[in-house]
């Protein structure tokens, strides 16, 4: 597959994402701050260790961070939908979520 030749160089953007993890046994909290240069979005999520499970900080970190990243993804999709609506783009069917909302 070939692409048409463009005289414009490709646009390169850098977005900064900071992930902060805080553990207070048995809870782990993740906070994500995404700076796009134009906007700042923030998401949060938690993981809680069962009192019957051994303490393994990495698992709580992974769960909380993964949940916060999924929440950030939902925020970005909502922002895009709002932007599309604002410019009058035709609505498309929203796919069913792959996971329940944790927000």
TrEMBL record:
<protein>
    <recommendedName>
        <fullName>DUF1876 domain-containing protein</fullName>
    </recommendedName>
</protein>
<dbReference type="Pfam" id="PF08962">
    <property type="entry name" value="Rv2632c-like"/>
</dbReference>
<dbReference type="InterPro" id="IPR015057">
    <property type="entry name" value="Rv2632c-like"/>
</dbReference>
<dbReference type="InterPro" id="IPR038070">
    <property type="entry name" value="Rv2632c-like_sf"/>
</dbReference>
């Amino acid at each position: 597959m070939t692409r048409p030749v463009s005289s414009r160089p490709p646009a390169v953007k850098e977005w900064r994402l900071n992930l902060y993890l805080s553990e207070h046994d048995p809870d782990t909290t993740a906070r994500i701050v995404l700076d796009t240069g134009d906007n700042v979005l923030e998401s949060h999520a938690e993981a809680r260790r069962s009192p019957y499970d051994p303490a393994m900080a990495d698992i709580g970190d992974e769960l909380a961070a993964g949940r916060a990243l999924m929440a950030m993804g939902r925020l970005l999709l909502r922002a895009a939908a709002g932007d599309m609506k604002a410019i009058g783009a035709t609505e498309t069917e929203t796919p069913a979520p792959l996971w329940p909302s944790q927000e």
